[in-house]
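Input/output pair, single chain:
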Amino acid sequence: MSDSNNLIRKIRQQFPILSQKVNGQALIYLDNAATTQKPRQVINCLQDFYRTSNANVHRASHALSAEATLKFEQAREIVADFLNARSSKEIIWTRGTTEAINLVANSWGQSLKAGDEIILSTLEHHANIVPWQLLAERTGGVIKVIPILESGDLDIDAFQQLLSEKTRLVAINHASNALGTINPVQQITQLAHQAGALVLVDGAQSLPHFEVDVLDLDADFYVFSGHKLFAPSGIGALYGKQEILEQMPPWQGGGEMIERVSFSGTTFNQLPFKFEAGTPNIAGAIGLAEAIKWLSDQERQILEQHEQALLKTAIEGCEQIKGFRRIGQPQQSVSLLSFTLEDQHQQDIGLLLDQQGIAVRTGHHCAMPLMQELGLPGTTRASFAFYNTLSEVNSFIEALDKATQPVSVTANSSAVTGLNEKLFALKGWNERYRELMLAGKQLTALPASEKTSQNLVKGCESNTWLSYDLQPDGKIYFAADSEARIIRGLLALVLDIFNNKTAAEIRAIDIDLTFSQLELQRHLSPSRGNGLKAVIDKIYLIAGTNNITEQQ
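Output:
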């Protein structure tokens, strides 16, 4: 065990970001399924490229371009070797998993006809659902979906029943980003091929955790993203069998993917360049190759065992917490724990952990069909990488247990009234967070009659409602509510600022400045955040609609 601990300690020292603090606490980064951190070797590689070798690749005759081209194509060879592809011609650079899937959908997908079937699974990320839906809409194709068992594993018997002579493609993830389930893609591929269908495997969540051999899997396409593989963002790759790629038409037109262009017609370049229109992410590709070299130099079997030990410790510890419920218990899982806490909204859990320097992910994880199947609005997800430690896992368990403790509110508290001024009197996020949580508990709940679809604010992770009443004196009274306590606290602040003012007074308020001064900018994210900005935008819209007060 000490040897393993020494190995992890040495690895952590190679990731500069892991030594910094967040909210005054040592960073515990448990959001690796969203993106992984980068070792110093990769960071230095990017800097070195831009300092010494930056030039556009291919076709140029000068030395700097030749050097950049050599590194760029060597990177392709490294990716091919990493996946055990037969040739580097089978590696197409993309911006990531999403673009790689869209490439296949828009190129191979041109052969799809009305009535042809594509099989997906309930576990898929939106990126492996929406491109196929768009393709089906264009062609008259049919989408079929593999259900899941109660454990979170795929129902392989049901999958076999879905296969038919109409099945053209099975698109499946290797590991679920929402539950951690490792799917039996080799078995799925064999069954699909027996039915005459091709197979695309989304490997975004698998490659960071274990080695993949595309020849052994026999998948027709395999896609992944660099940013989940300790590499830069904005780079990824599509592996495709050469004979299939050669039959597929180009997807995007432009430079590099052509052989000859004239106004009478164009002939296209050979693989892999046929699918790489425009200037590529040269530094990203070189950085991805450097990350793969770094990863390949590690003792991966030991690292996999360490990750599984982290997951086991997390599960055993969290199961002792009142109200904890693990979502999915698949037979095989990557080091990812998706869960709920009874009577706790996932946003509140995420923010409480963030307050203690622990980064996790909350929400539907771009897997809304899965959440709908599970009857959940979302989950909290802690995802572990080999640079995490058992000590960090134990800190996570302790912090999570703290989230289940009741928030005490004094009987004479006036946290909601004058909240704006009260927050300005406090110092730092931690004190303001506690005050907001108190305000959230005290905020008067909207009656059920007010929680209508008309009052529901779109863009919020938790269900949030806003209603208003125009008073005879021209002032507007707002009422709001949310499922998440922290959002209720923030709503209390917003109501304290905007309530009982005229439309002109509301429009004159600079809420961005107030939130900046209170260091609450994190809550004004226009997308994927808590949706508070959507509430504020609706308030401004109400105040600006037909100059509401001026008409009185």
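Confidence is low (pLDDT under 50) at residues 409-415. The chain has 20 helices and 20 strands.
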